[in-house]
Amino acid sequence: DSFLRLGGDSLDAMKLVAAARREGIQLTVKDIFDNPTMSEMAQVAKLIAAPTESFQKIPPFSIIQANATEVVDSVAAACQIDPGLVEDVYPCTPLQEGLMALSNMEHGAYI
User: Fold this and answer.
1) What architecture is domain 10-47?
2) Which residues pair with 2 in a beta bridge?
3) Which residues, other chains included, contact 20 with Cβ-Cβ below 8 Å and sequence gap of 6+?
4) Cα distance between residue 83 and residue 74, in whole Å
5) Helix (H, G, I), strand (E, B) or coil at 7
6) What is the tens place of the pLDDT at every residue in 54-109?
């Protein structure tokens, strides 16, 4: 039977995509609607290849472009914590920088 004839809708299609992904199968919502029977879906579904290389571990404080000790001390002071509790520091994204700038102009905004 057809996915649509069985009452499948876009939310069900998203759930099916997620379930397929958990089983290592790549299927899109478009695939489901374009190929609504199981046999048609099986023809367009693809196996998700296992990653061939592992993620490289990034050492703490290696992303920032400043003296790590100074940054740790500054962050610890701003958060009122012991510097030994700071595990790593990441730079802000452009969106975060913009929100921080707006927060400085309008106290309490976005915080």
Assistant:
1) Orthogonal Bundle (1.10)
2) 37
3) 26, 27, 45
4) 9
5) coil
6) 677 889 999 888 898 999 999 999 999 999 999 999 988 999 998 888 888 887 77
